[in-house]
Design brief:
Strand content: 15-25%
Structural class: alpha/beta
Radius of gyration: 18 Å
Strand order of the largest sheet: 5-4-6-3-7
Distance between the termini: 38 Å
Length: 163
């Protein structure tokens, strides 16, 4: 609430997808990842700086452990201390690039009902700055600049989802 009193946000310049990396064996035993996450006794993890953290905190409450990094969160799952890590697709794709064998132990499940957006924080009194940023974002979307930056810095790294 305190932050909401001092900042507002530009329009989102990038949409992310919330992803769940779940223990494959535990998910199979539970009848699938959704059933595993619905079990009120299962613990989940997320990453402190993740854009999806507020929604995950609201959904899982005291069943959630927030850790400083994705590798430490995944380690909790691999050691059986949690059943899943929930974070965004960019973080997961980068981690999977460095850990390709993880697919043997972890199952990737996209969250299709939430797509958090990245936006810029602006002083709540700076109406003109917020309007200018929104115009710049719109121009960059229309002229392809945002898509080119995403391709340059993220490449074709977003995980492909198998339904």
């Amino acid at each position: 609430l305190e932050w909401a009193k001092s900042v507002r946000f530009s329009r989102p310049y990038m949409q992310l997808q919330e992803l769940c990396l779940a223990d494959r064996l535990a998910a199979t035993r539970a009848g699938g990842v959704p059933q595993l996450l619905a079990d009120k006794t299962s613990r989940v993890t997320s990453v402190a700086d993740s854009v999806v953290l507020p929604a995950v905190q609201e959904e899982f409450g005291d069943r959630l452990t927030v850790l400083p990094s994705l590798p430490s969160a995944v380690e909790r799952v691999l050691t059986g201390q949690a059943v899943a890590v929930i974070t965004d697709d960019v973080a997961v794709s980068r981690w999977l690039d460095a850990n390709p064998a993880a697919g043997l132990r972890l199952q990737l499940l996209p969250r299709t009902d939430r797509h958090p957006g990245l936006a810029m924080a602006v002083n709540w009194k700076a109406d003109d700055l917020q309007a200018w940023l929104n115009l710049c974002i719109e121009k960059c979307v229309l002229d392809g600049t945002l898509q080119s930056l995403a391709a340059k810095y993220l490449g074709d790294k977003r995980p492909r989802m198998n339904k």
